[in-house]
Write a structure and sequence with these properties.
266 residues, mainly alpha, 3-stranded antiparallel β-sheet
Length: 266
């Protein structure tokens, strides 16, 4: 199929906008947004450009997103870079995996609902998040032996040791060597990525529409849900318990009206 020069130019403009801002909507550029949604040829060109750049172009609701593949270290982050951003200097792998675990706990606290959206709360206090992390680490350590952790890939013992090695600071200084500072650094990183609004003064976290869209239409869709469930599901060798049933209920895949996810179904 041959394309007109104006279509190629429009594709390049849209893709450059996505590279720069990682999303495109009528609010941040009405002309380019209309060009994308109203012209199938340009839309196909942009998607093709995304494939070449080891990424996906998806429209969730009224926003077009550039989503790098997991191993795309040009548009995404390497492990070394993430460790540098999320942890204190000289951090070990235990610190890095703990930071990843903190983010997963934050997501499960906000997104455990069913229906048109999985989000079940409007905000969360940092102190509540801190307590939830301690509880989940303690529960994981009590339920998994070392060999189970190795098999499942969840080193609860190491993560708990890394978390408890951080002292508490009630003076509000948020040094990186404290629990408060460790969480503060992670939340600031998520805010910089446009995923949360972190109100430091109030110690409050609020999710953004970008994160809501990713959770509803990408992370918790049928394709990816099993991966998330595998991370937080109870060890399959344990018999069903009241606690395990509760965890399973919280992770049960919510029903989705996929009518808002437009061009990913085309």
């Amino acid at each position: 199929m041959s394309y007109e020069i104006d279509q190629v130019k429009g594709c390049q403009e849209i893709f450059y906008h996505l590279i720069k801002f990682h999303e495109l909507s009528a609010e941040n550029n009405e002309r380019l947004y209309k060009l994308y949604v109203e012209n199938e040829e340009i839309q196909n060109l942009v998607k093709l450009q995304g494939e070449v750049a080891d990424s996906r172009i998806e429209r969730y609701g009224n926003v077009v997103y550039l989503i790098p593949h997991e191993d795309n270290y040009c548009l995404g982050f390497t492990k070394t870079e993430l460790k540098q951003y999320l942890c204190k200097s000289g951090a070990t792998d235990k610190d890095y995996y703990l930071a990843q675990f903190v983010i997963l706990v934050l997501l499960t606290e906000f997104y455990d609902g069913q229906g048109s959206s999985s989000r079940t709360r409007d905000f969360m206090r940092v102190g509540e998040l801190q307590n939830s992390i301690s509880e989940r680490l303690k529960e994981g350590c009590s339920r998994m032996k070392e060999e189970d952790e190795l098999r499942e890939g969840l080193a609860f013992t190491d993560m708990q040791a890394a978390y408890e090695s951080l002292r508490s600071d009630e003076n509000g200084k948020r040094a990186k060597t404290t629990k408060e500072g460790f969480l503060n650094n992670i939340l600031l990183f998520l805010q910089k990525q446009g995923l949360v609004e972190y109100l430091e003064r109030d110690d409050t976290v609020i999710t953004t529409p970008r994160l809501d869209n990713f959770m509803d239409w990408d992370i918790l869709n049928e394709k990816n849900f099993k991966r998330v469930e595998r991370v937080f599901a109870e060890n399959r060798e344990f018999e069903k318990t009241d606690t395990e049933e509760l965890v399973h209920d919280k992770l049960e895949k919510p029903e989705r009206d996929n009518s808002e996810k437009i061009d990913s179904e085309e």
